[in-house]
Amino acid sequence: MKEKLFENIVSKIKNRLLQESVMDRHILALSRFIVHQFKNKEDFEMNYYFERGNDYAEFDFNGYFIEDEDLDEPFSIHAESDMQEFEIEITYNPSAFPESMSDLVAEVKETVVHELEHILQQNFEDYNVEYDNDYKNNFEYLTSNAEIPAYVKGLIKRANTKKISLDDAMEEWFKENKRKFDDPENEWEKVKNIWMSYANEMLKKQKVKKFK
């Protein structure tokens, strides 16, 4: 009986690691493609498909690059996704490149992880969460069932790409998005605590990447 239980546990661990490895490859492929197209200043519209276990996801994958010489920051990324579409739009100031390329790569990877999490949530049963799009404010949005794992996993990716702590990655994100908060100082402390608690809980369960 014990041997059978051990075999089942080992099988589940192997399965999870295999699926993780598959998703890592897709994250890398999508990120590299976006950066490649950005460097070539070529918008794209294509179909993307991947399998995970016995299930699959298929969606439109679109990217658009907008040059803005008056942009106050080096770049701004806007992305959306659902069950059938992943769209990313990068507005950038050409004078900031190539100096800002490494920061762009880190945020592209973060964005890909974030949006793929939503695609996984809507296509695979083990990722399914209860969606509630009736948010009264930004705080409710950032602490919703669907957004907590997406933001946390994305920011872990940013932290690991830039070789910084998750805390630093979160603070970077806050500085970039401070204007979206109604009451930045009070709300951010609560959001960050919720995100960090989730990250630590999922790390114990080996459901997120390691971070420092």
Q: What secondary-structure arrangement, pairings included, does this model have?
A:
Blueprint: H1 2-39, E1 44-52, E2 55-67, E3 75-81, E4 85-92, H2 101-123, H3 138-142, H4 147-162, H5 166-177, H6 184-204
Parallel strand pairs: 2-4
Antiparallel strand pairs: 1-2, 3-4
Description of the molecule:
By secondary structure, the protein is α+β, with helices and mostly antiparallel strands. It has 2 domains: 1-100, no CATH class; 129-212, no CATH class. The chain has 6 helices and 4 strands. The chain has helices spanning 2-39, 101-123, 138-142, 147-162, 166-177, 184-204; strands spanning 44-52, 55-67, 75-81, 85-92. A 4-stranded mixed β-sheet has the order 1-2-4-3, with helices on one face. The longest helix has 38 residues, at 2-39. It is globular, with a radius of gyration of 18 Å.
Quick description:
This protein has 212 residues and is α+β, with helices and mostly antiparallel strands.
What is the number of strand segments?
Answer: 4
Structural category is alpha+beta
Q: Please mark out the parts with pLDDT under 50 across 5 or more consecutive residues, or reply none.
A: 1-18
What's the story with the biggest beta sheet? 4 strands, mixed
List keywords for this structure.
212 residues; alpha+beta; 2 domains; four-stranded mixed sheet; 4 strands; 54% helix; 17% strand; globular; disordered N terminus
